[in-house]
Amino acid sequence: MALEHEFARHYEVQTISRPDLDLLGSPREIHRVLDGLDFDLLLLPAGITDVDHCERRPDEAWKANAGAPAHIAAWCARRGIRMIHFGTDYVFEGVKSTPYNEEDATSPISLYGKCKLAGERAVIQASPANLVVRLSWLFGPGKAGATPDWAVQLAMEQDFLKIASDRISMPTYTIDVARGLFPLLFDPKATGWLHMANSSSCSWLEWAKFSIDAAVDAGLTVRTRMVNSTTMAEVFLNRAHRPKYTVFATDKYEALTGMKLPCWQDAVKRYVKETVVPRYADNGLRAAV
Ligand SMILES: NC(=O)c1ccc[n+]([C@@H]2O[C@H](COP(=O)([O-])OP(=O)(O)OC[C@H]3O[C@@H](n4cnc5c(N)ncnc54)[C@H](OP(=O)(O)O)[C@@H]3O)[C@@H](O)[C@H]2O)c1
Q1: How far, in Å, CA of 7 to CA of 10, rounded?
Q2: If you average pLDDT over every residue of the chain, what do you get?
Q3: Spatial separation of the C-alpha atoms in residues 232 and 238, rounded to whole Å
Q4: What per-residue confidence (pLDDT) applies to 256?
Q5: Measured in angstroms, how far is the CA atom of residue 50 from the centroid of ligand 1?
Q6: How large is the average pLDDT for residues 152-164?
Q7: How far apart are CA 272 and CA 78, in angstroms?
Q8: Residue 38's CB: how many other CB atoms inside 10 A?
Q9: For 63, which DSSP code?
Q10: DSSP 88-113
Q11: H-helix or E-strand spanning residue 207
């Protein structure tokens, strides 16, 4: 949604949604859809992103996250069309304590991470012109299941929240990704893997707490601002393994663009104020008007 919204300001953007192109379709079906379109650049943010669903339905996960990117990349390569694909921090094991750069060894610990990595590699192997943008902890318009959204919702409903503090990464605003990617869309130097994230890192607990505080600052009345600490082992008991630490080094992005994305706190504040809080316009907001 953010990519389409931002890029449509400057380019003619065609959106291909699930009814048009099913990533679970055969290579022939996928290619037939692409044959009917006319474009200069293909971006592929779609995929199966539910990590637990991937463990339960490995056949679907491999088709959508590895097979489909490969078939699409092969089609693009035959026509000399550049492809930008979106990868994930889950390709890393998460055992480092310093930021992961694009050359760091991958070692996914979930099926989601494994099939996404296979998809990333297929896209890179299909053409030296292609780019794989790895992202982490996304939030933004159209992603109502993200941490700022549910943390604020729970803070309005419950007396206290419990969130893991041993999970560290970089909350990343889809609008900032879209704006930050803009200068690289047709840059022939922007190829291979690229790590992109809002600047600075935090724990999952800090992200949730900051989101609730930002909502209160923007005029929302909540039941609690108390967020207690728990562990990933407790939150994800009997669920797919998630990497604990996936902070990105973004030096390659900064060298290519001369830019750094805003810090995550700035991004969360903007998102919560502009998108999350207005959903509850009959809450404390009315009193503030
Ligand atoms: N979310 C994160 O925190 C995160 C972190 C790191 C990297 N990433 C990567 O960033 C990219 C975007 O992630 P996201 O969270 O924005 O994804 P998302 O909200 O889960 O959206 C995924 C999109 O893929 C579509 N899709 C799913 N199965 C499909 C199928 N069989 N055929 C066609 N379309 C299908 C979905 O369509 P429907 O709307 O019809 O379901 C949806 O539009 C992904 O490549 C993901 O791996 C995400």
Answers
A1: 6
A2: 95
A3: 11
A4: 98
A5: 8
A6: 95
A7: 43
A8: 7
A9: I
A10: EGGGS----SS-B-TTSPP---SHHH
A11: helix 204-217
Distance CA 126, CA 121 (A): 8
Contact 172, 136 (CB under 8 A): yes
**Protein residue with its CA nearest to atom 10 in ligand 1:** 86
Question: What residue segments make up the domains of the chain, in order of their start?
Answer: 2-288
- Which protein residue has the closest C-alpha to ligand 1 atom 36? 46
For residue range 56-78, list pLDDT tens digits in order.
999 999 999 999 999 999 999 99
CA separation for the pair 249, 10 (Å, rounded): 29
Q: Which residues line ligand 1 (CB under 6 A)?
A: 18, 21-24, 45-49, 64, 86, 88-89, 116, 135-138, 143
Among 3.30.457.10, 3.60.70.12, 3.40.50.720, 3.40.190.10, name the CATH number for the domain at 2-288.
3.40.50.720
| Residue to substitute in 6, 17, 34, 49 for testing ligand 1 pocket (most ligand atoms within 8 angstroms of CB) | 49
Provide mean pLDDT across the span 177-203. 97
